[in-house]
Structure formats: structure tokens, C-alpha cells
Design goal:
The chain is mainly alpha-helical and 200 residues long. Helix 1 crosses helix 6 and helix 5 runs parallel beside helix 8. It has a domain of 138 residues.
Length: 200
């Protein structure tokens, strides 16, 4: 009977995420990942067809985890409060999952792509984009009564662009965002939705 594998997918992905967060995707070499695992490189190739596939899995898991929490807040029963909770989820998640934040905020998705992903991974990435687009559209309809281009642009800025910009410098410095960041994000969100004419 074949011996059971010493390292499973979860352990390999976790080690790769740790290395990618510390050294960037370019620095996440198979040798460095194997070193973090204290495993031979063959253990990694036994589980993943290539380094690209492994790095793609790391990015997808980080993005799926973050977006699941963000989407859950955005779908709350009161649209105005739900949007505020989603915007403020960003700094809270940076504090709770700094490794995930470094993967998602300091690098582009394309940095984890290289020569491309297999079709199932591309489908997961496409589903993430569709989920975000639909969530934003539904939020705008609930809050503004419309989902025209201007409303979508304002909501996208208030919910994601401004919060991500506010936490980025702290992610780069490997520090937790201070409480004032949450206040800045909340003030920006409230000003933006007021400008767009949020329904009372």
C-alpha cells in the first residue's frame, strides 16, 4: 500500500500564503515554500501541477474569504447600515487577517497568474467578479432606488476604493490600522451616499 502523504493541500496552501505574504508572489519559489514546510519539493508537485496553480489557489482563497465576509455585510437588511458595515469590514479584516491583506492589497491578481490558470480556477475568479458586480448593483438599487453608472461609481468608491486606500499604507508598514482609519472610512462613506442622494 502507498504511504499516506505527509502534507495535504491545506498545509501546502497555508505555507505558500505565508511565503507569498512575506516575499511577494515572485519570491514564493517552490524551494522557499518547501523550506517553510520542511518538506521535499516533490511533496508540492505531488499535490499541485505547477507553482502557478499553487499561487493561483492562494490568491483565490484569500479573495473568496475576504469577499464572503464583505458580501455578507453588504446584504444586511438596512441598506445604509449594511454599506457602512461592509466599508468598515475592510480595516477590521486587515487587523484580523494581515497575511490575507498583504496578498490582496500589495499585489495584483495578475502577479499570481503568470502563464494562466486552469479553467476551473478561471471560473472561480469570474464568479468572484460577478458576485461583486451583482452585490454592488443590488446595494445601489436598495439605497438609491437606481443603479445607473454614476451611482455605481460612487458606491464602488465609498464601499471599496476609499477603504482599501485608507488601509494600504498600514498594510505596507505591517501595522494594524489605527481606530481613526475606521472613522475616516465611515465619514467618507456617509458623505458619498449623501452626495448620491441615498433614500431616507
Amino acid at each position: 500500500m502507498p504511504r499516506p502523504a505527509r502534507f495535504d493541500d491545506e498545509q501546502i496552501v497555508a505555507a505558500t500564503a505565508k511565503v507569498a505574504a512575506a516575499h511577494g508572489p515572485a519570491g514564493a519559489t517552490v524551494a522557499r515554500i518547501a523550506g517553510a514546510l520542511r518538506a521535499p519539493t516533490g511533496s508540492i508537485y505531488h499535490r499541485f501541477a505547477s507553482r502557478d496553480v499553487l499561487l493561483g489557489e492562494v490568491w483565490l482563497r484569500a479573495a473568496e474569504s475576504f469577499q464572503a465576509g464583505f458580501a455578507a455585510h453588504l446584504a444586511g437588511p438596512d441598506a445604509k447600515a449594511a454599506g457602512l458595515a461592509a466599508a468598515c469590514y475592510v480595516p477590521r479584516q486587515v487587523r484580523e487577517a494581515p497575511q490575507q491583506a498583504r496578498i490582496l492589497l500589495l499585489h495584483r491578481r495578475e502577479d499570481f497568474l503568470h502563464r494562466g490558470w486552469p479553467a476551473p480556477m478561471k471560473a472561480r475568479a469570474k464568479a468572484l467578479s460577478a458576485q461583486m458586480d451583482e452585490g454592488l448593483r443590488s446595494f445601489c438599487v436598495r439605497l438609491f432606488g437606481r443603479a445607473d453608472a454614476a451611482s455605481l461609481r460612487i458606491a464602488g468608491y465609498a464601499l471599496a476604493e476609499a477603504p482599501l486606500a485608507a488601509v494600504r499604507r498600514h498594510v505596507e508598514a505591517k501595522e494594524a490600522p489605527p481606530p481613526v482609519v475606521d472613522e475616516l472610512i465611515a465619514a467618507t462613506y456617509l458623505a458619498c451616499i449623501a452626495m448620491a442622494g441615498a433614500k431616507p
